[in-house]
Amino acid sequence: MEILQLETFLAVATFGGFHRAAEALRISQPAVSARISTLEEELGARLFERDHGKFSLSLAGKALRPHAEQLLRQVAIARQAVHELHPIAGGALPIAASLSICTYLLPEVLKKYRSSHPNIVVSVRSGNSAQVLKMVLDGEVDLGLARSLNHPEVETIQLRDDPLILVGHPGHPAMANRKVTLEELEAIPMISYDRGSSDWTLMNGLFRREGLLPNIVLEVETIEACKRMVLRKLGLAFLPQIAVVEELRRRKLLPLEIVNSEPLRRSLDVIIPRRRPLSRSAQELVAGLREAAQNLSPMIPEGKKKRRN
Question: Does 189 fall in a domain?
Answer without folding.
Answer: yes
